[in-house]
Amino acid sequence: MAGRLLCGCGRAAAAAWAPVPRGLPAAAGLGPRRSCGEEAGLRAMGFSEEQARQLLGLQPRLGPTRRKEAAAQLLLLGLSAEAALGLLERSPALLRMPTERLRERAQELRRLGLEGGQLGRAVSRCPQLFTLPRRKMAAAVRLLRERCLFTAEQLREVLGTCPAVLLEEPRRLHHHFQYAYFRMGVRQKEMVRARLFRTPFAELRNRHIFLERRGLYQTPHKGQTQSSNPRLRDILHLPEKDFLASLAHATPKEYEVFKKLLAREEEEEKEEEEDRDALDTEEDEDLESEGSKTAWE
Q1: What string of pLDDT tens digits covers the 297 residues of the chain?
Q2: Which residue from 102, 216, 236, 255 puts its CA 20 to 30 A from 119's CA?
Q3: 44, containing H or E segment
Q4: 290 vs 278, 282, 285, CA distance in Å?
Q5: What does the domain layout of the chain look like in residue ranges?
Q6: Radius of gyration, CA atoms only, the chain
């Protein structure tokens, strides 16, 4: 064992003086002994020789244990060595985070119900979960539980499949939910199954209103559901070509014209709202001016 390790270190030291092949980042600033020690430690954690060298090339000015500690935390979440390397390459800021902070955030996510592979997949899809301010994450969770009334199990499923909801501004997130709930008559259980929050709100609104204006979607009365409406998951996740052919029975040209007209309507509504706000402000100023004049007299 000792002989193999010395042999491996010798090869690593020799490689440090050889030209670095194109496409393989050099671990600048690493001496032969340090490089050998770090590489051996990463190999022991399950990284291949090539993966270890790629990790050594990330943030080469970091301390000798920072890469190893960050990688270890990601492996503990259930990520494979390949997934952990890819995540660190996409989000090098994770390497600069204190190990304790990475561990604390992982614990917070586990308290929300994310465990095992689900936690690893959520972090892999949305590495910003580690750098997200705690207050912002708490606000999103509180909104989903207290105002959107998702159960704990439903919240776990939402976070597992759509972890980016924690990055949304609460006002926009609530508007997204309210549109599906009140405007479309969709309940929480169906939202979770359809992975509502993975679809941008603009796309949801475009498809829904297009179906509605073609008489293919009816807004249910309060407290009722409309079983003849298309399923939310089909509205959201069918490719546009299939959505138009099987649900909307329309051509791509018709849909493009509709989206332009809808955008124009929204712009006009926005301008009217701004005009009303400006008029209200002027009236308030006139009243304040008149009140001040009366008081002076």
Answers
A1: 444 443 444 444 444 444 444 444 444 444 445 557 778 888 889 899 999 888 888 887 877 678 888 888 888 888 889 988 888 888 888 888 888 888 899 899 999 988 878 888 898 889 999 989 999 999 999 999 999 999 999 999 999 999 999 999 999 999 999 999 999 999 999 999 999 999 999 999 999 999 999 999 998 876 565 568 999 999 999 999 999 999 999 999 999 999 999 999 999 988 888 777 666 666 656 656 665 555 555
A2: 236
A3: helix 32-44
A4: 18, 12, 9
A5: 35-114
A6: 27
